[in-house]
Each structure stands twice: as C-alpha cells, then as structure tokens.
Amino acid sequence: MARLCGNPVLSGFCKRLVMTKCNYTCGAIRPVRERSATNVPTSRGLKYLADWMAEAAPDDSDREWSAEIEAMLRDGEIQRIPPDLQAAANDIAQAQLRVRSARRCLRDDPGGAINAAWEAIRLALTAHMLANGLGAKTRRGGFHTATAAYGIAALGPLDPEGDLGRLDEAREQRSAVSYRHATPDRDTAQANLVLAKRVVELVRGELGA
Known about the structure:
mainly alpha, Four Helix Bundle (Hemerythrin (Met), subunit A), two-stranded antiparallel ribbon, globular, disordered N terminus
C-alpha cells in the first residue's frame, strides 16, 4: 500500500483509518470492549485528519454494542453521534490537566480536589464515548449520572479489581461538595484522585492516546 500522507509519523495512522473505514463499510464491527487501542492520535496530527475523518465517519446505527450499553441506548441515557477523534483527544488532554489540578489541591483544598478529580473522570469518559460514536444526553441531573454508568459498562471489563464501581460515588461526592455544601475531607479527595488517574489511564490505553 502506498503511503497515504506526506508525514511519515502519520502515515501508519492513515493506513489504520482506511482499514477502519473499510471495516465499517463491510460491517466487520467490534463492540466497544473489543476495540483495539491504536486508532487515536494524540498530537498535532489530528488537525491534518479532521476533514478526512468528517467525511469518513461511519454510520453506527447497526453497530453491535455490549448489552449494558445497548440498554443505555434504549433507555435514552446515551445516544449515537458521529465519532469525533479530535474532540476525544482534546478531552483526554484536558482530563490529564484536571488530574494535575486535583493533585495540587489535595493538601489545602480537598473540595477543589474532589471537583477536579470528577472533571478528569467525566472528560476521560466523554472522550471514550466520542471516539466510539456515543454521547450522554444533556438533561437536568442526568448527564453526569449517565457518564458514570457508561464508564462502568464500557470499562468495567478492563477493571478486574472493581475500582470503577466507585464512579457514581465519586460523582455524588462531587455533587455534595459543589451543590449541598458538604464538608470535604482529604481521604475522600485522595481516593477520588486515585480513581481519576485510573480512569484516565484506562481510556488512554483503550484509545491509544
């Protein structure tokens, strides 16, 4: 196969994109938990591919998902959208920044750490959804809940220790601190920071970021 772009760093990725497009066209679709972790670039190469990806974005209407995610689609918690790898990479970068913010806040501002940790989790899970052509529906009180549920459904098989079972608890703790004036404590902030790091690492591994 001839090299698909002039940038040698990106040429291998371009080949994978062509194969991805072919797989979608031929119906050889794998569910989320079986996807390879090699399809998302992480640097400026994305800007060269944005227009191509917009044209090549597949129709996921007949795609096979895990049973948990199919149930979320039926219940209207999440919805199908065009995959957006550039937005996914941007969200992963922002999630990493939030992890650093949570670490800095940990000693003197545990409430800030709890907020930043949840934002890191939310951004990472949103990135995973975007890369897979899914999005949480925007509705009052439901967006963050659906995001946490998606994380457990999509990444749970990659987490044999069961750490992701705390995702909804971390969401609730962030809500309590932000909206109900709960008194934050450092132990909770530390636990949520560890969880945020784990989620970001899992998503980066899944997306090859």
